[in-house]
Write a structure and sequence with these properties.
The protein has 176 residues and is mainly α. It folds into 2 domains: 87 residues; 65 residues, Arc Repressor Mutant, subunit A (Orthogonal Bundle). The chain is built from 8 helices and no strands.
C-alpha cells in the first residue's frame, strides 16, 4: 500500500495538466483580470488582497481540478467560481478581525493598571497623532504586527513608519 504522500504517475500527470490549464488562463493578461475580479468582490479593494484570493484559488484549482480532457471554458468557469469563493472567504476573515480588534482596543481604552503604563506615558500618548497612537496602543496590548497592519490598513513597511512616527511623537511628548 502506498503512503498518502506518495504521488503516482497519474497524479503527476493530472497536476501537470491542471498547471497547463492554469497557465493558459493566466496568459494574455488573464492573471490581472482575475485579480480585478477578486477586487470587485473584496470590501477593502487592496491589490495584494486580490492577488491573495487569486493565489488561493490557484492552489484549490491545482488540487481539485482534473485537467485531462477538459475544455478551457470549463476550467475558466471553475476558476472564476474559485476566485469569487476565496474573495468571499477573505471578506469574512477581514470582517471578523475589526470586531476582535475593537474589543481589545476597548480594553485598552479602560484605565490600565498603574503598574502597566506609567501615568506620564499615558498622558504623553494623548499628544500622539491618531494612527500612530492606535499602532502604539495595539503594540502595547501585544497584537501581532500583521494584526496591527490590517487594523490600520497599511503594509508591513507602512506599519514600521507609523510605529516609528508614533515613537518619535511619544518621545517628543515625554521631553516636554
Amino acid at each position: 500500500m502506498q503512503s498518502p504522500h506518495h504521488s503516482t504517475r497519474s497524479d503527476v500527470q493530472r497536476r501537470d495538466a491542471a498547471g497547463e490549464l492554469l497557465t493558459k488562463l493566466y496568459s494574455g493578461g488573464g492573471y490581472k483580470r482575475f485579480v480585478r475580479l477578486a477586487l470587485a468582490q473584496l470590501t477593502d479593494r487592496r491589490w495584494e488582497n486580490g492577488e491573495d484570493a487569486v493565489q488561493s484559488a490557484s492552489l484549490s484549482f491545482l488540487k481539485a481540478f482534473d485537467g485531462d480532457n477538459r475544455p478551457i471554458e470549463e476550467a475558466k468557469a471553475y476558476f472564476i467560481v474559485a476566485v469569487k469563493h476565496h474573495a468571499y472567504r477573505q471578506n469574512r476573515t477581514l470582517s471578523r478581525k475589526p470586531a476582535d480588534l475593537t474589543d481589545r482596543l476597548e480594553v485598552f481604552g479602560e484605565a490600565p493598571a498603574e503598574d502597566e503604563i506609567p501615568a506620564e506615558v499615558r498622558e504623553a500618548l494623548k499628544g500622539v497623532s491618531e494612527r500612530p497612537r492606535q499602532g502604539l496602543a495595539m503594540q502595547i496590548l501585544g497584537f501581532e504586527r500583521d494584526e496591527i497592519a490590517a487594523a490600520l490598513g497599511v503594509s508591513d513597511r507602512g506599519l514600521r513608519k507609523v510605529i516609528g512616527r508614533g515613537r518619535q511623537e511619544l518621545r517628543t511628548q515625554l521631553e516636554l
